[in-house]
Structures are given as structure tokens and as C-alpha cells.
Amino acid sequence: MIKEINTLLEELQPDTLKEKAKQLEDMLETEKLEALKLIEELSNIEESKEIQNKYFGKKGFVTKIMKYMGKMSNEDKPLLGKIIHDFKVEIENNLKNKVGHLESLAINEKLLAEKIDITLPGKGGKIGHKHPLTLVEEEIKEIFRRIGFTVAEGYEIEEDYFNFERLNIPKEHPAREMQDTFYLSEDIVLRTHTSPVQARIMDKMHPQLPVKIVAPGKVFRRDDDSTHSPMFHQIEGLLVDKNITFSDLKGILLYLVQAIFGKDRKIRLRPSYFPFTEPSAEVDVSCGNCNQEGCRMCSYTGWLEILGSGMVHPRVLEMAGYDPEEVTGFAFGLGIERIAMLKYGIDDIRLLYENDQRFLEQF
């Protein structure tokens, strides 16, 4: 019937609707009865969408016949509008009511399917706990709070100036190649270490002494394997004051290692190079797995590398406004993942980020 109605409307000319009005009304009534029958037989929501699109969609029947209004004279337009309105209103109302009825049935079926027998014994819920990285970070922060350090935080998106230049790493310096950096623009980076917090805190506190902070946070480098991640966590330590010596640094690091791993652990300092410290040292901890007898974990050396450290470079102090002839300091940086892996015997850094409950429940 839809095809016949379209043919009739195409043949209409301005001012001829009155002659064809009764025929058009009869044809639309026949089509309406067919539509109402289809609506009555609907059994699910998906079928109702087909009827909705057939009559009221962008290419639906009502949408198409409305376009014929443009052919009509001003006198005939109200008549055609009334005929179309009378046709579509009953279909719309019946379709709306049927859809509402089907939705109610679906909700009732779902409620019945999900019915809970409240007389059954309940299931015990699992209580969450802190992630191993959070545990280690909080432990380290507490260790330093006990000896007067405060916790400082900085920006994860950092200026190249603070990430490199204020740490005695000017542009074109080969040390930049040691840190494969994510650049957001020429002058903005994802920080490669938490060391920029050093410069910002010294700027903020100058000329006040002492500067005594630890700075935890996320850092980013282009590494990704079993022992490296593009995003990882560091804690930077900084102490600047008068008469600070390398022996103070060694004492603090021994205190840190024994607080984390146990009183029987030792440390070893090896000469190294960092642009922002001079002299610099890599720090190893004695292997607790083999008591320094040599095992696979320590590559049969008896020692495990854990952090880098050194005395703050005079140039770094000068850029912060301090006189290196009057003031000295030390700094160190350690990876929280590295400490967690050694503390808990984890052999793959990626386990810390996979959110596998079988792994996390062990902590």
C-alpha cells in the first residue's frame, strides 16, 4: 500500500488535493491498520525499532509523505497536514505503549532472573590493601621523616631548564643521552628523574638552611623490558647545609639500607659520574639471599646495586643562589621499583603494573 500512496501523491498537482482527499484517506487508513497489526504482534524491543524506522525514520514513510507538503497550494496544505497527522498519531501512540509494555516485561524478567535468596549464607568480601610500590614508598618516607626530612613533590611535566640545565646538564651535554627523554615540545619534557624538585625547592627556600627533603614521584624514560618501564617511581633525597660531608652521606645511606633490609646489611660505594654531583658514587647493598657468598641474584658478586648518590655539584648550588664555599650538601636517588623487587624477591618489573590479583594478594 505504501507504494500506491506514494504514486498517488506524486500525481497530485496544486489545488487538486480535494478531489483525491477521500482516496488518500482510505489508502492511509488501510496502511494504518496494517501498521497497528504489526505493532500488536511485536514480541521484543528490536522489532519495534524496525517499525519505528519504517514509518518515522529519516527515510521512513511519514518523513517522505511530509515532503509533498511543498507541492500543495496554501489552501491545500492544511488539509494534507491533517490527513498525515491523523494517520501518524495513532501509530505513534500505539507503538509507544507497546514499547513501554515490552520494556516492563524485560525488567520483570531480569528481576526474576537476578532474584536473590536472602536466606542463603553470604559470601565474604575481600578487603583491599596497598600496592607493594605504595608500601615501599611510604616506608621510605617514614624512615626519613624520623630523622627530620620533609616530603616534597614536583611536576611530572617539567621544563627542560629544571630537568636538565639546573642540574648542570646544558643543551648538547652528552649526559642527556643517558636519559632517553619524552619531549612534549622543545622546552617541555616528561621528567626523567625527580631531581628537578631539588632545584625548585632550593629556589623556594634560599637563603634558608638546612634544605632537607625527600621527593617521591613518577618519572618517565623510553625503556621497556623485564627490568625497565617507560614509567617508574623514584625518591630523590637532598640535604644542603653548612659542614655537610661525604661521611654524612654514607651514614644516611647505611641507615636507609638497614632500615629497609635489616641491621645485618652492608653498603659499598663505587666511584661513578653524575653531572649534578661531584664526587659521585653508585651504592650497592650486600646480598641478603646468599649472605655475600655469591648467587644468581647478585650475579655471584655478593652485592646488589640499588641507587646513585654524591655531593651536590658546586655549580648546582650556585645556580640556586648558595655559596659553595660556605654551603655543601649531598643528594641521592633510588628507584622504588628496584627496592620493591629486592625486598620482595620480584624478578620482573612488569608484574608491578599488570594488576594481577594473584600477584598483588601476596603483599
Give the name of the CATH superfamily of the largest domain.
Answer: Bira Bifunctional Protein, Domain 2
How many H/I helical runs?
Answer: 12
Tally of domains: 2
CATH class of the largest domain: Alpha Beta
Work out the strand percent: 15-25%
Largest sheet: 7 strands, mixed
Secondary-structure-based class equals alpha+beta
- Tally of strands: 9
Provide the CATH topology of the largest domain.
BirA Bifunctional Protein, domain 2
Strand order of the largest sheet: 1-4-5-9-8-7-6
Q: Residue ranges: pLDDT <50 for 5 or more in a row?
A: none
Report, as a whole number of angstroms, the end-to-end distance. Answer: 72 Å
Provide structural commentary.
It is a single chain. The longest helix has 37 residues, at 77-113. Helix content is 42%, strand content 18%. The mean pLDDT is 87. Helix 2 (17-40) runs parallel beside helix 5 (77-113). Strand 6 and strand 7 (277-286) form a beta hairpin. The chain has a 7-stranded mixed sheet. The protein is built from 12 helices and 9 strands. With 363 residues, it is an alpha+beta fold. The protein has 2 domains: 2-113, no CATH class; 132-360, Bira Bifunctional Protein, Domain 2 (BirA Bifunctional Protein, domain 2). The chain is elongated, with a radius of gyration of 38 Å.
